[in-house]
Specification:
Strand content: 5-15%
Shape: globular
Order of helices and strands: HHHHHHHEEHHHEEHHEEHHHEHH
Largest sheet: 3 strands, antiparallel
Radius of gyration: 25 Å
Amino acid sequence: MARGCRALRLLRPVAALLPAVRRPDRAVPFRQRALYTAMSVSVFLVCSHLPLYGVRHSPSGADPLYLVRTLLASNRGTLMELGVTPVVTAGTVTQLLTASGLLGRVDGREDRELVDAARKALAMAIALGEAAAHVLLGVYGSVGAAGGALIVLQLFSASAAVVFIEELLDKGYGLRGASAVSLLAAANTCGKVAWQVFSPVTVDAGRGPEFEGLALAVVHHALVRADKARAVAGTLLRRHLPNAVNLLATCVVLLAAVFLEGMRVLLPLRSRDARGRRATFPIKLLYTSTMPVVLYSAAVSCLCMVSQLLHYSRYGGGVLARLLGSWKETSYAAVPVGGLAYYVTPPSDVAADPLHAVTYAALLLTSCALLSQAWAAASGSSARDVARQLADQRLAMPGTRDGATRSQLRRYIPTAAALGGLCVGALTILADMTGAIGSGTGILLAATVVYNLVDNFQKEN
């Protein structure tokens, strides 16, 4: 074992107790990886719709995680209340500790296994702490000591299943093209869309009992109503339940995202060593994929959480609290009605407040363009980094001298990053303002994951 990983030696007894997925000795066949992925996603989706046992009433009041539940693959009041939050938090902390050198050098296979064990143990601890905090803070009302322990056990067990699924898919047993976290988040969004279309739950929104799912409601009204054409038209255009406009907007955004994901420029390359060897370097229009809107959503969520904490504290009437945002509770969450938080969140009615819509669109587009360029530089995808990687591979653009490849990349990559950020922001605005099922961020993430999975499937075959 390497000397540098002394801080992890204390985890040896814990690592021996934690279940682990062994890396495959050889490549896993595609059919097996597809089967493992389908089973894992199915288990996750079932848990995402199973309500917590022992909760008498649905969680009510302000939901501080309402804006990021799509990114965290979290469904309120279900076994997947915590979603992938423990896994993402533990992975981020472990990466920071490893990159900073606080864990020492991680060289050998045993060191990497101990780091994985530390990440899993931290994820379990975070899940246990978050589950206990939900119960102690009264999110599920008064449940008693035994009921609270049962809820904590359910949330902890579901998070343990997510940790196992994440390890299984990321160690070579899942489909290539997307990480386990992004795959689960995309599956959660697709599950929400399918539920809104085919939900068998009946509700009464003022027009009598009807199915929540749009497809079932249309079929039901076409069969039982006397005036079938009028009933079907009213169902397709209903206001307080999923309607045809929401479904059409979802399909348009999804198809537009897939179309933009496939747009790219291929730069020709030649080898400096082997004559006749040629290659291409693709520069996608969505150069940083959906990362700009993900970062924007995370920043907006943090702002809203801080604003809510100030608003509901004794400093709620202060200047800073009113500047960050004023809040009003609704049946599903607390919504901003003033301040900065109001203008960085999508408007519920564009015609009622055009200034809100214009400000939101301008802030989102500008932020996505800047965040896209910043992410390209921070993730090692800038023109300088790509030119260095091509130089290490002894590749260059034909007909250019040394150093000219970098100048050519500077013409394309910054423009693609900024333009891609604007496109992602525009699709997010379209989804949010047209009432697409699921958030704009979730639809874009799902489209990107599905496109990458299909692309890798075609490459493997």
